[in-house]
Amino acid sequence: MRIVRLANFVAPRSGGLRTALHELGSGYGAAGHEPVLVIPGPRPGVRETPAGKIITVPGPVVPGTGGYRVITARRSLRRLLDELRPDRLEVSDRTTLRWTGRWARSRGVRSVMVSHESLDGLLRLFVPGRAPARALADRLNRATARDFDVVVCTTAWAAAEFARLGVPNLRRVPLGVDLARFAPERRDPALRATLAGPDEPLLVHCSRLSSEKHPDRPIAALAELRRRGVPARLVVAGDGPRRRALEERAAGLPVRFLGHVSDRDMVARLLATADVAVAPGPVETFGLAALEALAGGTPVVVSRASALPEVIGEAGAAVGDDPRAYADAIQGLLARDERDRRRQARAQAERFGWPASVGGFLGAHGLPGLIGAR
Question: Per the database entry, which stretches of residues form a coiled coil (predicted)?
């Protein structure tokens, strides 16, 4: 089966979405299917990858996003889809690409919309008033569910905005984590020595530095810890439109900004080497970076308002949006026996393997899952 996937907001410096697209494409190929991914870029192009063919089509940059692009040319995309003749269509953007569900239905192609974000949550950040934001989200979500055969959400939290509408074609499929790459064995004493002293707790924040991720919270938590006499240090891995403002805010604090880290093995070493990871985004629908930290044996402090408490289980702490609460949670995790907290983190991550995720997505497409998937 040819599974054509469409996605916006994918760039060389993308994080979780890019990882998920790669892993799912690789899994589809391993299951005997032909994955094709269509994404926006500065110029057209085609390349073969281990995750299948990737077709780049021209798309404009969205202002204020730090370089993310979207596909807006419907006519040329419609022609491309007609040329590709997919057996299945998978879409990872509910804004400019929602119309492709109607295209698929007109061609008799089964379609899946993957909800990688909470529209309800995002609108609450930018639309004044909870009631107007929810009303708009409900209207758009009803349209999405109507236009696609299946809507896939990665957590119950993400699915809630569809479930409250009584959407009948809703399916929940968690994402996964590369348990071989992200592992406690990646802990690197030499790396740690360059980042913190032997008695200095090392915190890490791995995320895109944009407003909806609340990247200022780890810095505020560090300031509170230092005020309490805790000699913690913070490493920030990621880039985005908020970086300059964050660097200014961190002035005088022991914070190291690494920028975007393209080397996934380096990310794995960093996450496994830290003592605690901080993932404060209040509208995260899954939080792949947090799961990667757990796989490396590092507990995570997350926003109580997001889906992450569902993902981290007892292998971390979920708190309200307050620097003191984050500082309390970090101190609580550091007070646990190190071997116990790292063992618990790894055990939680092992519940989320990519083979099981690929099997779930194939099931949403009405295709057999992977044999022996876990």
Answer: none
